[in-house]
Amino acid sequence: MSSLELKDFVWVGVIAVGHAFQLGHAATEVAVLRRKYKINPPTMDGPPDFLRAVRAQQNCLEFSVPFEIVLWTSAAFCHQAPTAMLGMVYLYARQRYIKGYIEAAEKRVPPFWLSIRALQGLSVLSITGLINVVLREYAGVNLVAMARERIF
């Protein structure tokens, strides 16, 4: 097995840091609306735009663990380039989701599904990479080498 180096994770690290900032931005949106409407914690009730902001933030938090798991697993067992591209799609979709949800609940739907597709793509890369490593290390079968032989 080839050894991994830090350069193999640079772009995925950028995506992970961007994700952290995005989660912070969602929390800030809620905090701004708390101040605007004078809603003190732990109260979770208020005007519709506040409730939508809270829900958008919570949904992003709910998806953050699965996203980070498949992001890093895909980078480690597959490749950082497609991983980072799908990570960018996910962050873009989530940003549109947050903004859209705060404006109107129905505006959250298309970006939500785009983020789900990005998660599915990362999951496929993760599983494919893991299967390839297991087959290569424990069965002597290299799927990547076999695919290269057939394509080229």
Automatic annotation (TrEMBL):
It is found in: Endoplasmic reticulum membrane. GO terms for biological process: leukotriene biosynthetic process. Gene3D superfamilies: Membrane associated eicosanoid/glutathione metabolism-like domain. It comes from the Eukaryota. It is a multi-pass membrane protein. InterPro entries: 5_LipOase_AP (IPR001446), MAPEG (IPR050997), MAPEG-like_dom_sf (IPR023352), Membr-assoc_MAPEG (IPR001129). Keywords: Endoplasmic reticulum, Leukotriene biosynthesis, Membrane, Transmembrane, Transmembrane helix. Its main location: endoplasmic reticulum. One of its GO terms (molecular function) is leukotriene-C4 synthase activity. It holds the Pfam family MAPEG. The chain crosses the membrane at residues 69-93, 114-135. One of its GO terms (cellular component) is endoplasmic reticulum membrane. This is Microsomal glutathione S-transferase 2. The lineage of its organism: Eukaryota, Metazoa, Spiralia, Lophotrochozoa, Mollusca.
